[in-house]
Design brief:
205 residues, alpha/beta, Rossmann fold, 2 domains, elongated
């Protein structure tokens, strides 16, 4: 039987610890701020964003297709600065998790979909190394959730059996993928609920 002594926590980042890196709310704000046609931007975004998230194109190449396919009255750097500014820490959980990790003895690994430039910015800006022991990011591993392969890769990096692992995500279909692989997975709906779940996991050791 597989040992369950060592526990591994897998966490999504956007929608759990931070706002989404470049979600539809941010794109709507960008359309308003920069005078863009949102429907056009969104159509082009949906066409190419998955390729950006698996690291096959750069942020500049993404912007060439989605934004700078027309002459604009604003600069590329102004638009990038706005994109980065859309990343914000969600109240409560990240700082609590950083402190809690010091006493829980668990390894914590991210499983997240993010383009490389946004991913690098968010890790540095919010000091995510203080929380995570490793990052399984779509831009680096050339897979994105809900591909079961990214979860299998995370298990390999952790050198852990699914029964040893717990996963938190704000999107229920991602949770269901993890559950189908034997991982204990939870739908993140609030800081309070996830905190309570983590305390129960810790107490059960």
């Amino acid at each position: 039987m597989e040992s369950t002594a060592h526990k591994i926590l897998f966490f999504d980042i956007g929608g759990v610890l931070l706002t989404n890196g470049w979600g539809h709310d941010s794109r709507k704000l960008a359309a308003k701020k920069f005078g863009l046609n949102y429907d056009e931007v969104n159509t082009l975004h949906n066409y190419i964003f998955n390729i950006f998230e698996i690291g096959n194109i750069t942020l500049d190449q993404y912007l060439d297709t989605v934004i700078f396919n027309h002459t604009r009255e604003f600069t590329r750097e102004d638009f990038k600065e706005f994109m980065y500014s859309c990343s914000k820490e969600l109240p409560g959980l990240l700082q609590w998790l950083k402190d809690w990790k010091k006493s829980c003895g668990f390894r914590i690994i991210s499983i997240n979909n993010e383009g490389r430039e946004l991913n690098d910015y968010r890790i540095k800006k919010f000091k995510l190394h203080d929380c995570f022991d490793a990052f399984v990011s779509s831009c680096d591993v050339k897979m994105r959730k809900p591909d079961p392969g990214i979860f299998q890769l995370a298990l390999g990096i952790a050198q852990a059996h699914p029964s040893q692992c717990y996963y938190f995500d704000d999107r229920i279909f991602q949770v269901e993928t993890a559950i189908s692989m034997g991982i204990h997975a939870f739908h993140h709906t609030s800081y309070e609920d996830t905190k309570a779940t983590l305390e129960k996991i810790k107490a059960a050791i």
